[in-house]
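Extended Data, panel c. Modelled sequence:
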Amino acid sequence: MTTQQAMEALHALPRLGSGAPGLERMQNLLDHLGNPEKDLQCIHIAGTNGKGSLAAMTASILTAAGYKTGLTISPYVVDFRERFQIDGEMIPPRTLASLTQKILDAMQAIRREGGEMPVQFEAVTALALLWFAREKCDLVVLETGLGGRFDATNVVPHTLVAAITRIGYDHMELLGDTLDKIAAEKAGIIKEGCAVVCYPDQPEEAMGPILTAAADAHTTIITPELEDIRQLPGKRLENRIDYGGYQAALGLPGAHQAKHAAMAVEIALALWREYGYDISDDAILQGLAAAHMPARIEVLRRTPLLLLDGCHNPDGTRALAETLKNARYEENLVGVLGMLADKDYKTMLENLAPCFAKVFTVTPDCPRALSGEDLQREARFHMDAEAAPSVPEALRAAVRYAEENNLAGVVVCGSLYLAAEARPWLLREAKK
């Protein structure tokens, strides 16, 4: 099996199962693979926004401390192999192919036995756990895919730290239509006796289920104090912070990333305090500085600005808008926007409107995409908007408009699908 065949085989699997939510399907798959999950010590991260950023920061700190660290990211942006990393390196192509074959062989055995077939995310998660166990990772940072309680990643028995990032409205058709319902699903990753680290600015409605889950698991919650998180002066879109004496230059811009950094510090301290892991202050600072995530308010060029963000819900667009406002970019930018029809795109547009002098709307490469024309019609209620026939044409038009009107630059946002399509073009443009 080639690497391409492996990726095609995994992507061909159904996204959702037909039965009731649960972990039985995933557990059965791992049983057929020799239960690699039992050999792993995990930091488990759930939430609506910020999971990937926190996971990257945490894994970077642990690698800097000298621990062989596995990391799962969901979803990927450009390269499918982004989903599986050890010490910042993606899974080798040949390893991906060989482990995919083992996953498919296990699924064939399940089919012969009449068992329920695993879905795509379950197969991908099993592959990651199998690789991490074979490589004898010291620690594994797991990002949930959707929810928490019934998420495929929640089969791991040894959760040292459970972290809950900010809870917001997303995937409501599966998780519930209120913050307390969504939070209850996310808090399902909290296990007996594990340390729990919570986002420092969590909506009040979400805290009840998190506190209940922690109490049921006989553990307490560590929450960074907002007054202890300070952003230090710096250049535009530079993110220098001070959290409890830890002064670090973050590779990820935004006030919300300062809060994720505080969480990452508390995760590291919990691993040291509760389990005896040797994580120095220098490792914490080095790890925070080195952490990077594509399409998370990613600055590809500073002058003129080229910025890419995969924000795809109201909280994400709010964080981007706040970051651009704090950097004093109001109405001095051109936007390229693409969104999905099943997202709250009206609120997303309201949040983004103060940022842009003009936007070009596009249709992301996704069956659930809102057409660029429909997005343009909605965007015109808030800003000057023009639909573009393709992503490359929108990008070229946006760069040209910024140059002709002496604007500060271009921001591409609204969907991770758009981010994946736009990033290679933006990287080439940034080198000019």
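Residues 298-430 form a domain with the Protein-Tyrosine Phosphatase; Chain A fold (CATH 3.90.190.20). This feature is highlighted in the accompanying rendering.
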